[in-house]
Amino acid sequence: MTDGRTVWLDGSLVPAARAALSIDDPGVRWGEGLFETMRAEGGRVALLERHLDRLEASAAALGLEPMPPRALMREAVATALAASGADPARVRLTATPRPTLLVEAAPAPPLPAEPPPVTAVAVRGAWWPGNRLAEHKTLSYAGHRAAQRRAEAAGADHALLLDAEGRLGEAALANVLVAAEDGPATAPARGLLAGVAREVAIAATGAREEALPEAAWRGAREIVLTNALAGAVSVVSVDGAPVGDGRPGALARTIAGALRAAWGSLPRVERGHGGAQGTEDA
Questions:
Q1: Left if phi > 0, otherwise alpha if psi is -120 to 50, otherwise beta: which for 174?
Q2: Nearest-CA neighbor of 237 among 250, 248, 253, 226?
Q3: Between 237 and 278, where is the model more confident?
Q4: Domains in the chain, ordered, with CATH?
């Protein structure tokens, strides 16, 4: 374990500082691989099966073969989580068509009682609705990382990705739901990642899929970001201008509650009694 991380690589636990992929691995050479970042509570990744469903669907769509079998991915997650002892934990699974399987487990902060406020900047032209590759969580994340660096350089927490016309797609690190004038909305998963947390949020709020024009999302009562690690956070300002009344609101609280319920829907695992096998929640 190094820097709080426990690492499982291709069949065994290894020191983080010595975990390495071959220079011939497609993930290293071409960025051909997939990853999932997940939250574990009570020794389990409650939404593990949804994450693995997405990874396997992306592997099939992109022709990434062979990939590690699902049973091995479950086992690797369970082993890394149990060895880590972290609760809650951040779990990252990386798979490439060598096949290579890498799982990292590290402590994660507890979820706050209320959705935390965050700031954002809008990055025009950073979302291309026709870019089907962006619908998969590949190792080629340079565009999203560049947008996020731009936000941080401006003193903001997140980057909102817009198309050339100013319509809102997603954030560099999250999906976006908006409390618009005619109800909650989120951009269709065309050219953006359909997040696991986004699925939970849509089910909880009945949000419709619509790419909102700039005037609509900038004038919204709330903008909420969701991801599978931090849950729901509330964007209280964009480009320095307040969103709504500048405070987290009802939409953020509804989504945060739904995600907290999803992550806490499984019984806790007693250390040393059955490992940390992740399962789908009901």
A1: beta
A2: 248
A3: 237
A4: 6-107 (3.30.470.10), 117-263 (3.20.10.10)
